[in-house]
Q: What sequence folds into this?
């Protein structure tokens, strides 16, 4: 139980520890346990990415490193809400800098866009936060461990890729279909790769996937249960309405680091196929900077 009221900044850290990994690799999928320690209890949920074809060598340290990066992405949404986040795996110094930086950036964005600005998923206590311009917006201490092989240092080697080969991160929507069509007209080697979340999102993508699979031999998909894990995490946040699945809203309750879950998820296929470019179309994301009560943030992310 937190020692602070939930309308204080420190009181948002309602989870004592969120632990991710170590990743378990098979040739065609990765599995990583997410563990929540809170209120003296422990809860577990398995994150799964499945590729439908061999993409990993389970004994290759570089594949283990890539899988660890993939598994860590969902956790970057919870820096405000945890006292500690433990990533168990082999990470390079560059990996650690990237994850730390994106965790802090996402904490600030969630603070502004999900907690200070109107959000229909919040219970009343969380709507009383007073804006604070802070040096650091992440409540969690980010800890890196490597329980499977403490002596092993993660390493990475540049992949052999072609700059004329493109992965189009696909959903069946107009942006990815337009991107695919333009690249095909330019004579490029194009690979429409779909992110197949296990829930309702796939209903809007499956027709596009089936069509492209029938006309484009490079079409592929990655199955993942990230949406189930995101919903599971909401059950551990007492300031979120627990009937969130019934709320009609064009937004997610609390997460913002979402597209990266798909971007890194297709990397094993890109590595296997030697694809050098990754294309995504989304009319809602922007790099425009704004300020809310003196706090810098991005508009629309």
A:
């Amino acid at each position: 139980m937190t020692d602070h009221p939930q309308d204080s900044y420190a009181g948002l850290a309602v989870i004592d520890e969120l632990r991710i990994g170590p990743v378990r690799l098979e040739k065609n999928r990765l599995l990583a346990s997410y563990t929540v320690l809170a209120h003296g209890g422990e809860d577990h949920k398995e994150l799964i990415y499945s590729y439908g074809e061999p993409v990993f060598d389970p004994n290759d340290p570089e594949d283990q490193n890539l899988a660890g990066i993939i598994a860590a992405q969902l956790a970057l949404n919870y820096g405000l809400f945890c006292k500690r986040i433990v990533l168990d795996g082999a990470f390079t110094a560059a990996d650690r800098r990237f994850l730390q930086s994106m965790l802090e950036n996402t904490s600030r964005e969630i603070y502004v866009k999900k907690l200070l600005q109107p959000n229909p998923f919040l219970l009343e206590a969380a709507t009383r936060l007073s804006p604070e311009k802070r040096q650091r917006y992440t409540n969690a201490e980010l800890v890196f461990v490597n329980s499977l092989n403490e002596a092993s240092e993660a390493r990475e080697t540049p992949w052999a890729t072609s700059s004329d080969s493109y992965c189009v991160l696909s959903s069946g929507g107009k942006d990815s279909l337009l991107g695919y069509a333009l690249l095909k007209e330019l004579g490029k080697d194009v690979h429409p790769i779909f992110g197949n979340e296990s829930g309702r999102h796939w209903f809007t993508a499956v027709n596009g996937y089936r069509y492209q699979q029938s006309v484009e031999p490079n079409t592929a998909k990655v199955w993942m249960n990230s949406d189930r894990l995101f919903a599971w995490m909401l059950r551990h946040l007492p300031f979120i309405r627990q009937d969130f699945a019934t709320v009609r809203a064009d937004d997610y309750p609390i997460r913002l680091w979402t597209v990266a879950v798909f971007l890194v998820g297709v990397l094993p296929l890109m590595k296997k196929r030697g694809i050098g470019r990754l294309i995504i179309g989304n009319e809602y994301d922007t790099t425009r900077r704004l300020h809310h009560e003196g706090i810098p943030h991005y508009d629309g992310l």
In short: The chain has one domain: 10-159+218-298. The chain has a mean pLDDT of 90. The longest strand covers residues 29-38.
